[in-house]
Amino acid sequence: MSKKTLVVCFGPLGRLLNAFCASARLRAALPSEHLVLLTDPSLVGLASRSPWFDDIISADLNAADTNFSRLAKVIKQSKYDKIIDLDRSKQTASLFAAFGLFAPKFASNAPRAKWTFSGKPDHPIEEDDRLLDMMGIAKVEADLSLGPELDWLLRHSGKTPSLQPGYFRLEGEYILLNLGRPDPENGWPAAAFQTLAGYILGMDKMLAITGTIEAREMARPLLRNYPQIRDLCARVDAFQLANLGAKAKGVVGLPDGILHLCAVGSRRCISLHGSAVDAKRNAIRAAGAMTLISDPIEDLSADDVVKAMKMFGAL
User: Fold this and answer.
1) 3-state secondary structure labels for all residues of the chain
2) Is 0.90 topped by the overall pTM?
3) Which CATH superfamily is domain 4-148 in?
């Protein structure tokens, strides 16, 4: 019987995408092991299409009735040979505490872990890589600066109408602008988004905005002032985002899982950051990605972004 390994990553979306670097390394180094991913229910659809796991299970750690002891018991009954915590969060620390004295072998930063993550905070991809080093997982030839291999998101792009720009009434050259999640402390001002949208549309480019459902509030004044903008916030799936990004003239915006999906096949992705530390921790890892940093982010003007987009060939 093959060994069983449980990989734990509850997200959010961007964290799961970055965790796919470690997942690919595990699959290459342990080809005969049964790899299972434990993730959030909202991420099962995406994860189940990835090429690295034999099975996907889910649990909602944010649910009011979450019982860590019950979940730990279910995991124990599955008799995993090892558990690899790619979340390394307070929630997963609580989950591993629920295993009690006879916990399975796990890699984490939680107390009593067999393999404990150590080192200065870094991009999650590097942190995951160091954790696998500590476990003795064989290295693979991969350029971590290019992020995870996500070409599988683009495989059916030529055969599915809903993956084409025309499905969203996008014609000719267009830009994807990611609003991100509204954040009073780390977000880019709404006025800056307004100015940038005006610049893009004034250069005869079509513009589509992306973001979470929480971004819909930020999108309203944009759509009111520029009704020609295509509103894709919380209206498209991961495969549509990846394919739209691959065909866009450029993608730009705040760094999150949505921007990461847009960057999968894009040759020009610009993520906006409020500090060098934020860029180090959260930068989009993709072949065509660059970061634009201003500390604080409020000082980053739409003019600065337009200049960067022109230099990068995104306008």
Assistant:
1) CCCEEEEECCCCHHHHHHHHHHHHHHHHHCCCCEEEEEECHHHHHHHCCCCCCCEEEECCCCCCCCCHHHHHHHHHHCCCCEEEECCCCHHHHHHHHCCHHHCCCEEECCCCCCEECCCCCCCHHHHHHHHHHHHCCCCCCCCHHHCCCCHHHHCCCCCCHHHCHHHHCCCCCEEEEECCCCCCCCCCCHHHHHHHHHHHHHCCCEEEEECCHHHHHHHHHHHHHCCCCEECCCCCCHHHHHHHHHHCCEEEECCCHHHHHHCCCCCCEEEEECCHHHHHHHCCCCCCEEEEECCCHHHCCHHHHHHHHHHCCCC
2) yes
3) Glycogen Phosphorylase B; (3.40.50.2000)
Domain ranges of the chain: 4-148, 164-311
Beginning with the edge strand found earlier in the chain, give each strand of the sheet holding 174-178 in spatial order. Answer: 230-231, 206-210, 174-178, 250-253, 269-273, 289-293
Look up residue 183 and give its two tokens: 């954040």
Rounded (10°) angle between helices 190-202 and 216-225: 40
On the question of a cis peptide bond just before residue 296, with omega within 30 degrees of 0, the verdict is yes
pLDDT tens per residue, range 279-288: 999 999 999 9
Two tokens, residue 9: 């990553």
Q: Which residues contact 297 (CB under 8 A, 6 or more apart)?
A: 186, 187, 188, 272, 273, 274
Evaluate whether 4-148 and 164-311 have a shared fold: yes
CATH classification code of 164-311: 3.40.50.2000
Examine the pLDDT at 256 and tell me if it is beyond 70: yes
Give the closest residue to 147 by CA, choosing from 248, 289, 6. 289
Per the structure block, which two tokens stand in for 200? 């893009």
10 Å CB burial of residue 193 (0-12, 13-18, 19+) is buried
Q: Per-residue pLDDT for 305 more than 70?
A: yes
